[in-house]
Design brief:
Layout: H1 8-31, H2 38-51, E1 56-65, E2 107-117, E3 120-121, E4 124-130, H3 134-142, H4 146-155, H5 160-173, E5 177-178, E6 189-192, E7 204-205, E8 208-209, H6 210-225, E9 234-235, E10 246-250, E11 253-259, E12 267-280, E13 285-287, H7 293-300
Antiparallel strand pairs: 1-2, 2-3, 2-4, 4-12, 5-11, 6-9, 6-10, 7-8, 10-12, 11-12, 12-13
Helix pairs in contact: 1-2, 4-5
């Protein structure tokens, strides 16, 4: 799976899947009300995805509100580096699952879903402020930095670890924290591809389907069996190779704490992200679609992208 090549028709399917997914979460944004829970928001995403003709998932919907958008108090799932030193087996990230946390005015919201359309998978993340919150709006603007930064690194054939470090350095320079470090394996991104849904039954686990584990797991198993093979479907800080040809869902996720005298000096935590598909070919790389909510936001606000 290291090197994946797609026809124009395939690429059109991936682009359509991504567009439909973003259309679904924007529709959910309009449906949210004060008091809506994360579980209810995730169910709304599922409704909107199915209304657009998609029934299978790379991963089912996630929704995070407030401080949970920064993964406050979360630990990285499947962190084998702490086992057996901690005498506790690696956990599966139960805290990431949607909860009964209720939406309040001024909260940050992240909606994340990865549907499959005509066997083409996509993975998107959409962040916004529910109501007025200047700190969140600024962070959403600051996310624009990472889109050209990641693309430039790929075009220069930097290793994924080098690009990861470039992103981390930019996050620190802007005064934010790296939230994607808490994803499984601390990924900045991961491969998406064609999932043969007709051949693999829908067997969900932790909001991921068996087909997803098979797609990502084959290459990871190969890498574990061959320690000299650095090729991987996961884009992390240890990936000492450049991005192989294929489709990569990249997801820079930044967080911060804010507060002031009006809040009695108390700090409130939030995180924001975007996630979209980067197409890497033999001699080029480009984002699959420029007509996406976060990109249109930056263009409207005259932020360079």
């Amino acid at each position: 799976m290291s090197r994946e090549f797609y026809t124009d028709a395939d690429v059109a399917n991936f682009k359509e899947c991504q567009s439909l997914a973003y259309d679904a979460v924007v529709a959910v944004q309009k449906r949210l009300k004060v008091g809506t829970t994360e579980k209810e928001a995730a169910a709304m995403i599922d409704e909107e995805i199915k209304a657009r003709g998609m029934t299978r998932y790379f991963h089912a919907p996630f929704a995070w509100f407030g401080e949970r958008t920064a993964f406050k108090g979360f630990e990285r799932p499947l962190n084998l580096g702490n086992f057996p030193k901690s005498f506790l087996p690696p956990h599966f990230g139960l805290k990431f699952l949607p909860t009964n946390t209720r939406l309040e005015e001024g909260m940050c919201v992240i909606l994340d879903v990865a549907p499959i359309y005509n066997d083409a998978s996509a993975d998107i993340g959409y962040a916004f402020a529910f109501g007025k919150n200047d700190a969140i709006e600024k962070a959403l603007d600051d996310l624009a930095v990472f889109r050209p930064l990641i693309l430039a690194g790929v075009c220069k054939e930097k290793t994924m670890a080098e690009i990861y470090d470039d992103v981390s350095e930019a996050i620190n320079d802007m005064g934010y924290t790296n939230c994607h470090a808490k994803y499984p394996q601390g990924v900045l991104g991961h491969k998406v591809g064609k999932i043969p849904t007709g051949l693999i039954p829908r067997i969900p686990f932790m909001r991921f389907e068996l087909s997803t584990f098979l797609y990502l797991g084959v290459e990871e198993l190969s890498r574990l069996l061959n320690p000299w093979d650095n090729h991987t479907a996961l884009w992390s800080d240890y990936t000492r190779v450049s991005a192989d040809p294929g489709l990569w869902a990249v997801e820079p996720h930044i967080g911060m704490a804010y507060g002031g005298a009006e809040a009695g000096g108390a700090k409130e935590t939030f995180g924001v992200k975007w996630e979209e598909i980067l197409h890497v070919t033999e001699n080029n790389a480009y984002y699959l679609d420029d007509n996406l909510p976060h990109v249109n936001r930056w263009i409207k606000r005259e932020i360079a992208v």
